[in-house]
Write a structure and sequence with these properties.
With 129 residues, the chain is of the alpha/beta class. It has helices at residues 7-18, 22-34, 36-43, 48-56, 59-74; strands at 3-4, 44-45, 78-83, 97-108, 117-128. It is built from five helices and five strands.
Length: 129
């Protein structure tokens, strides 16, 4: 069942993905990397405006976003998604919309283990104004 593209919906999709086996998760992230827009359409209820914006993403930004999401999921890291709603309805182009992606890589060594492990997290924020 498709989820809304909001904080709760992204968390629900993420929980479903992280519950998959490693092989199933790899299949999902491969599909995501092959066609980000199609993968988003399969997992989220997108408005016509959201779908148009996905198609309009510059290739370099879409590639960076795709790699960040796939890499974080493959590492079973967490994605924090926040969407700040517009304070009032605006005409297209009247109020700028920013999509900000950021991440953090942590290295963990458990005392007694032979090696450390890396864990990544990703934040995606959509803001207006």
């Amino acid at each position: 069942m498709k989820k809304k593209l909001d904080t709760v919906g992204v968390a629900e999709v993420q929980a479903e993905l992280l519950a998959l086996s490693d092989q199933e998760l790899q299949q999902e992230t491969t599909a995501l990397q092959q066609n980000f827009t199609e993968w988003m359409e399969e997992h989220f209820e997108l408005t016509p405006s959201q779908l148009q914006q996905l198609h309009e993403l510059p290739t370099d930004f879409r590639d960076k976003l795709t790699d960040a999401v796939a890499g974080t999921l493959n590492g079973r890291g967490l994605i924090a998604f926040t969407k700040k709603e517009k304070s009032q309805p605006q005409q297209r182009g009247e109020n700028p919309k920013d999509i900000i992606i950021g991440g953090q890589q942590s290295v963990v060594w458990r005392v007694g283990d032979a090696e450390s492990t890396e864990h990544g997290s990703l934040s995606i924020e959509i803001s207006y104004g």
